[in-house]
Automatic annotation (TrEMBL):
The lineage of its organism: Bacteria, Bacillati, Bacillota, Clostridia, Lachnospirales. InterPro entries: Cyclophilin-like, Cyclophilin-like_dom_sf. Signal peptide: none annotated. This is Cyclophilin-like domain-containing protein. Residues 7-117 form the Cyclophilin-like domain. It comes from Parablautia muri. It comes from the Bacteria. It holds the Pfam family Cyclophil_like2.
Length: 119
């Protein structure tokens, strides 16, 4: 199975590479059934977060996020970071070759609908 996923918001599509853990594998299996569309909201001026409608296995570890990091939060939400944060998180993947400015332009202010699909 390909190790990439597409993340689409409006007219912008990013490619992300999955992390190497059971959480990312579980998300791949979920996406194999079709795209996942999530309503994501701003949180703390550093991320977009939205529920995935199911629980995935967690592999929490102390990490510092950066622009483009995709994190599983509490096993049932996906987070796309556009700024840094340090905490115990499960890394799901990372958007390839993206800047904070590009993420902010694509996701905008407030809520945004984001579609995740296999690459």
């Amino acid at each position: 199975m390909d190790n990439t996923m597409k993340i689409t918001a409006g007219d912008t599509t990013f490619t992300a590479t999955f992390a190497d853990n059971s959480s990312a594998e579980a998300l791949k299996e979920l996406l194999a059934g079709g795209p996942l569309t999530i309503r994501m909201s701003d949180y703390a001026d550093m991320e977009k977060v939205g529920p995935i409608g199911t629980s995935l296995p967690k592999n929490d570890e102390q990490i510092t996020t950066g622009a483009g990091d995709i994190i599983l939060y509490q096993g049932n939400s996906l987070v796309i970071y556009y700024d840094t944060n340090a905490w115990n998180f499960t890394r799901i993947g990372k958007i390839n070759d993206v800047t904070q400015a590009e993420l902010l332009e694509a996701f905008g202010d407030g809520d945004v609908t984001v579609t995740f699909s296999l690459g």
